[in-house]
Give the backbone structure.
Amino acid sequence: MTSHPYKNLPSHTRWYRAVSTIELSAFDPVVDFPFVIARHDKVATAGSCFAQHIARHMRLRGFSYFVVEQGHFLASDAILEEFQYSTYSARYGNVYTSRQLKQLFERAYGSTAYDLDSWPLGHGRYADPFRPTIQPGGFSSLAELEIDRAQHLAQVRRMFEELDYFVFTLGLTECWFDRATGAALPICPGVSGGEYSDDTTGFVNLSVAEVVADMKEFLQNLARVNPRARVILTVSPVPLAATAINRHVVTSTVYSKSVLRVAAEELTSEFPHVTYFPSFEIITAGPSAGRYFGEDRRSVLEDGVKHVMGLFFKHATDAGAVDAAASTNAEASSVAEGRASINAMKEVVQVLCDEELLARE
Amino acid sequence: MTNIVAMGHSHLTRVRSALDHRNLPPAGTGPADMAAVWLHDVWVHNTDYAALGDSGHIEFNAYVIAQAESQIVDMADTIYCVQFGGSGHVVLGLQRLSPAFDFVYAGAPDLPIERGATVLPADLVSRALDAHMAPYMLQLEALRRMIKQPIVCLETPPPYEDDAYVASHLGNYIAQPENVVGAPLRRKLFLLHSQKVRDFCRSNDIEYMGAPPHTMTDDGYLVRDGYGEDATHANVWYGEQVLLQIEERISQKIGAYTAFA
């Protein structure tokens, strides 16, 4: 019998052994993941909606999920969530495209090229065009928007400089931009603030070369301010909600995901500090065959997210050494301490008020 | 003759002190062309103004209303002046929290931000304030449901500008009195609190009466003449200015007063 290159390759290289004959729960396409995230490593996240799941599970499992904009304990967790504190590491909202990420970095470091002020929402309220849905109802004044933006970008700088791992989920290739400044927008003007006009708003469906170029620029910039940073790329398995091109949304989805997947491959081949985690494959390919999508055939079910994150913790982390409870408890106790201080003030005010009444006696 | 039923918590105490200083005859015995004040003192009565009722809603204390009605001969020309609670903003605006916070108040966007503070969205601070205001807003709402007469809700006294005065009038309750919130944030919280009460009143058919304008400096702080014995409540002089404002509102002088028992 003659030998050939496939002969000695491991099981995971064979569809029959790695896909056809295994249960969904045992499906594991992660091979030789190069990084091991330790509990103390600061992990920051950004990207499209799916990245929120990664953030949530990192926190739940007690990893050092690096959040530079936490809000404040004076508000309940539910309120903080509404205002998108801790949804991602900083309050940038969904960063769907490579262009947005490149731009976020440049803006954080002072670039004024993307000089977009605000989108009036009426009734004296304003949206930040770079994150139009970051808080319910937008900002209550221009001054608030400007101060919040400056604070946000300062924290983004801190995040980039201090993080150990940056998990970025590539989401879309379809991108709207402001013609005057070239600024990439997370959402088409007119959808959540702003006004759409062909004269002021352009559209681009990014190619592999464009995504790679954007990401290269970002990676080089990140390495300049934080040489130890390692980057984990993922591709969001969530299909496009809508395409701006007059063709079937499935066709656009496949194009978009294909471009992003190829771009991720090119980047991981070129940069040793960048790797790819196959969450896209876990949800969409092989044995899952759509079973992890909800009734709308778009939303990823929690079982799917758990599958992805289970493999992430197994392959990408030092999960055995993680004392999840300790880390989670530390964060919780700091918040509890803060809230206790407010309750103490409440009691002080009550005492002051009671004394006021007593003084009348 | 207008009858004024006054009720509320600690902030109403200065109004009562001012009434005491006027040495008025008991309500019901004063001149017919002058108003009478019937004041319910929550401290003396040790009553709650509202509680969760059998209906599952917060219900106003019927006993308090019945007490007032039993003493007032003609309820037709009666208004309720109330100052329930009113210290929600003080809970967040007395001692600087760690980490410190601040926000931009849209009505006064140029007020400075506390050094080193995390700037939060005003809407988020407003939502956080809800939790501290809920008890007395529910009382106000329950009163509105219970009675038909006009209700006038009095604004709480404006904030003090003098940080050192605040720090030295906190009693022994705060470990680091030097670490009080700065005046601009105190003012923003006051403005936000007042705006929320005003909006609530507007949508609940309740008249809102702001602090007498002359009791405030040009910058919106309580004038020195109104500083009280503690860090948050004003003094008798301020209470008197509120009485004058009420008299102007009803176009009658107050000629009699009883704290009903």
Summary: The domain at 3-88+131-162+192-259 of chain B is CATH 3.40.50 (Rossmann fold). The mean pLDDT of chain B is 91. Residues 54 and 119 of chain B are 43 Å apart (CA to CA).
